[in-house]
Specification:
Number of helices: 10
Order of helices and strands: EEEHHEHEHEEEHHHHEHEH
Helix content: 40-55%
Strand order of the largest sheet: 3-2-1-4-5
Bound molecules: 5'-O-[(R)-(carboxyoxy)(hydroxy)phosphoryl]adenosine, zinc ion
Distance between the termini: 23 Å
Number of strands: 10
Largest sheet: 5 strands, mixed
Strand content: 15-25%
Radius of gyration: 20 Å
Structural class: alpha/beta
Length: 337
């Protein structure tokens, strides 16, 4: 089954053709990052306008690269939640129009479910059940994945998401948006033990809290400025990255141990972080757990992951009609269409 998938939830316009939920026939991503960089973050209206301009070209490119047409695929999938509402609406309306014109089934996909499914494209042997850590710009979740479409969230962020914390801390350190990747690069040149940063406590041991850590970084920089002291930015980046990686890893591994789960999966944009990949890999090895980490190319937003999840949603009969809407927030465990 070939699915044409469309993603436009934030600042990437993407389309892909995916076979049987596991094989990438084509995948095209048009990023708007350079333009949003000027403003230090994503400007929602600009994002919507750029999606409008790019979506036809991106979808056509994905179809061309797959040597197929919208009439020849078996279904059309689209991210309908969560995300920037004006951005999501572009993809949803485009997909609805295309599905109507070609008389194909329309499959609505939850963006975070897509991030998790990115791993099915990289690992043909990966099947549920497993425990998943999703760390992205908008989400930090520990999720029990009991089946391809059965999810139970057991921990979530109570304030900032991991990627959001990376981006805000990076901004305080003077890096451009989105700062996660700059912190990652700077970390390699710094001393991860130079500064002491807090690990915030949460009432639920599997929840995350990153805003106190972000504030600690900002205060450290301000205090140094007031005293006329130099901050070693590379070392501060290394300390921040190490602390976030340890918080995410420790809670995730503890949750897996408590549930006696031996198969664990990482997903989301922050899965690209070299510190997190290394810390989690070592912890998995120490605890004799089988760890799946997506290749860097599938960590950030893309439509291939949406096509992968769509295949499994379709098997469960998840099909939308022309009344499909887009939603800025949506439960991962019990999404509504
Ligand atoms: O999953 P994603 O592409 O978009 C959302 O669904 O939110 O995640 C984007 C986030 C941004 O906050 C970005 O800074 C972060 O992922 N990110 C990283 C790295 N690459 C991307 N954070 C830390 N280290 C990286 N190498
Ligand atoms: Zn995402």
């Amino acid at each position: 089954m070939d699915i044409l998938a469309i993603e436009s939830s934030c600042d990437e316009t993407a389309a892909a053709v995916i076979r049987d939920g596991r094989e990438i026939i084509s995948s095209v991503v048009a990023t708007q990052i350079e333009e949003h960089k000027l403003y230090g973050g994503v400007v929602p209206e600009i994002a919507s306008r750029r999606h409008c301009e790019s979506i036809c070209g991106v979808v056509n490119e994905a179809l061309e690269q797959a040597h197929t047409t919208a009439r020849d695929v078996d279904a059309i999938a689209v991210t309908y939640a969560p995300g920037l509402i004006g951005a999501l609406l572009v993809g949803v309306n485009y997909a609805k129009g295309l599905a109507f014109a070609t008389d194909k089934p329309l499959i609505p996909v939850h963006h975070i479910r897509g991030h998790i499914a990115a791993n099915y494209l990289a690992y043909p042997q990966l099947e549920p059940p497993y425990l998943c850590l999703v760390a992205s710009g908008g989400h930090s979740h520990i999720i029990e994945v009991t089946d391809y479409t059965e999810f139970t969230t057991i921990g979530r962020t109570v304030d900032d998401a991991a990627g959001e914390a990376f981006d805000k801390a990076a901004r305080a350190m003077g890096f451009p948006y989105p700062g996660g990747v700059y912190i990652d690069k700077a970390s390699k040149l710094g001393n991860p033990a130079k500064y002491k940063l807090p690990k915030p406590h949460t009432a639920n041991p599997y929840d995350f809290s990153f805003s106190g850590l972000k504030t600690a970084v900002i205060n450290l920089i301000h205090n140094a400025e007031q005293k006329g002291e130099e901050i070693n930015v590379n070392s501060l980046a290394a300390c921040f990255q190490t602390t976030v990686s340890e918080i995410l890893t420790d809670k995730f591994i503890a949750a897996a141990n408590e549930r006696k789960v031996k198969k664990i999966v990482l997903a989301g944009g922050v899965a690209a972080n070299s510190g997190l990949r290394e810390t989690l890999s070592k912890a998995a090895e120490k605890n004799a757990m089988e760890l799946f980490i997506p290749p860097i190319s599938l960590c950030g937003d893309n439509a291939a992951m949406i096509g992968a999840q769509a295949f499994y949603e379709f098997q469960k009969g998840v099909i939308a009609d022309e009344s499909l809407n887009a939603y800025p927030t949506m439960s991962l465990d019990n999404p509504r269409i």
